[in-house]
Prior knowledge:
By secondary structure, the chain is α/β, with parallel strands linked by helices. The protein is 42% helix and 9% strand.
Amino acid sequence: MSKNQNLDIERKQDHIEINLPKNVEFTLKSELAILTIGLQRPPKSRNCYGAWLYAGFVNEKPDTIKTFAVRDVAPDIPLLANIGAVQLNYGVTPKECQYLVDVVKADALILHLNVLQELTQPEGNRNWENLHLRVINYLSVPVIVKEEGYGLSKQVAKKLIGAGVKVLDIAGSGGTSWSQVEAYRATNSLQNLIASSFINWGIPTLDSLKMVREVSKDIPIIASGGLKSGIDGAKAIRMGANIFGLAGQLLKAAHTSESLVSEEIQLIIEQLKITMTRYAPAHVL
Ligand SMILES: Cc1cc2nc3c(=O)[nH]c(=O)nc-3n(C[C@H](O)[C@H](O)[C@H](O)COP(=O)(O)O)c2cc1C
């Protein structure tokens, strides 16, 4: 295994070990948690796709990729492979992306944008210039671009849609703060101060959702970043999202047991159903 692959795996372990015991949330609350909505039918044009499953976060190459091949236990759920977009500027080729998609039997490839996180990591990748998005036209599956908790802006959304990205995950601010995680992870006080300066940085999820929906009425939007429940999910759908996602909320359950994850997901589904019951269109649930 190469030095870089080891670094990626160690960093992922650091992140999980930090996120589990510590409070790594933005200190400013997600607006979705505060927002109240009337129970209304979402606009007809919104398609909702039910449950999607991430194939895990694939930052690694052949030896670890296979551990993300879970298609046999998830035969009919959309599976998404995931790499950092910046890796396209650091030698990851479209062919390797296709390999990842094939091994995982993924329905789409997510490229995540985490500029600020990379900038607050001493070892982070800083060359985001002219990101090679030619992978979009090369792959056999659609490309989804996802933020990581700092939100997608209008300008970025416009560029991504123009480049042929088929789905956007806004991943706005308000939940897990990667600047907070990197502050905990820092090994000296300067590094800690740099990361801490950005703990509340980002476009709040709700604002990002509205901005991106303004750019396109049709592009499927995944809303994430600070969502804790099916009630938050229903609010996000009402505000223009097609799908919603939660990360931090499920991590602690995942650390406890598989059955707790199932229970948490069942709870989210029931909350979503109840919130939308009166008008719940069949395509939502
Ligand atoms: C431990 C952990 C690891 C994560 N790793 C990735 C990753 O590799 N790729 C990615 O796109 N997002 C990753 N995320 C980010 C989430 O998908 C999400 O965008 C972000 O945490 C905001 O959502 P939340 O507030 O529900 O946590 C990770 C989240 C957690 C908690």
